[in-house]
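Hi Y.,

Following your request, here is the sequence exactly as I used it, all 485 residues.
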Amino acid sequence: MCDEARPSCARCLRIGVTCEGYRHTNDVLFRDETRKTIQKVTKTLPNTVPGPDASLTVPPLEQSLCLFFADHTANRMEEGDPGYLDYLPSMYREAKQSSALVQTVRAIALTHFYNSGNFPEVKSSARGYYGEALATINEALHDPVERLEDDIMMSIWLMQLYEVLTGESARVVEQSTAWISHMQGLVMLLRLRGTHQLSTLRGRSMFYLIHGSATMHSLMAGKKSPLYDWEPLVEESRKGSADFPSPRFLASSFRIQVADVCAQMKSLPMPSSCMSAVERTRVYQEALRLKEIAMQLQRSSLDWPGCRDGKWKPRFVSLPIMLPGATQLCSREAEYFQDSHAFRLWSVYRGTMIVLHETLLKFGKDYAAASIDSQDLASGEDVILWDFERSYCVQAISSTADEILNTLPFVFGEITNAGQVRAGSDAGWGDRSKQSHLGVPAIWFLRMIKSSMYTSSTQKALATEGLYKIGRRMGIRQALTVAGA
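Below is the corresponding structure, written out as tokens. Let me know if you'd prefer a different format.
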């Protein structure tokens, strides 16, 4: 929420509130001068969002809410299988007008509306709702009962989405103080809520939503997941249920294991001449152990449920596309899915594989280089750590990048979930639908392709083009920031 700059953070200065942001305390209280904040925001917040035309029958706020729910939520595939934020519209309808959830949803909806090119004057109202939501959340977190309610959890998670829509940082997941503060607060509250939250479909949906944010941060920042110890508890609480073990759970478990081994690889010290022979041997033994764990994870990924279960597997259709720098259309294999939830799981799975292989490549390269300067190591250890798997990992990154790029027509709505190709496409990158709930996760994985040392120039160009279109067509400024970085 707050970037914690001193003497005053830039975010709070812009929206006119006084805030000390999230603090890591045992009782999870967020310190804030709530009374002063509410007074300031209430004075500037209009009762309704003004529009340029008083004759409009639908106020801009209502238009923005309709647009937001249409673009950022998705229904479930079948009973017992959650969609994406499919419960949010009903939560909004049932919440009090003064609640943090209503204020946060309005802030995000108006921001999305503004980003989509509608009514520039709603931007200030969005900031006003954001400021009031911030104050309301901080006040609720002082109550040991209210802070564990679904509405508060959802409001804080939506604050993360707000950071993505405003798009002020190209590396928001790893570097944005505000985004990370939201995530840390959510993890603390998630633990306080306990495993009983997994007893309902909405509780499990919210759990995995927050769990996914935390693990994504871990993967991209090279840190161990803060919820790694929850996997056994989740498994125990869901045994015997019809939807367990689901691909969602197994994909999440795989992602946590990858985050853990990647974090260990990045933290292992390099062998050096300052170490004793015994110390260097220990480091290399640990390096070999981690390498083997990583390769085992790679092998086990081939048995991921999404590869076997028909309703989760991607399907394929040929689509004409104009490659960057080309003068005529060519045919490209595009992927589509029965459900947006399946798309999200495959995207996360593929992004995780890119992180795993890139980390393994860097790990092997560093230790191969370190072994050159070692005088008492057994011969061949640099080969074991580097040459043997290098070509395989490079090829895996390239092929995974292609798979991610092949989903972009589905993201843009050019291909329906029934495999129908819509007419009127823009050189193979359709402009028929604003499926922003698909565009948000696509940003992170396109960024991986754009920044990777092991993807081709064509792949990078396609990723950059996709990011620009996500930003311009879906009103997600984070994509534009990443594309131009």
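The chain has a mean pLDDT of 77.

Thanks again,
Q.
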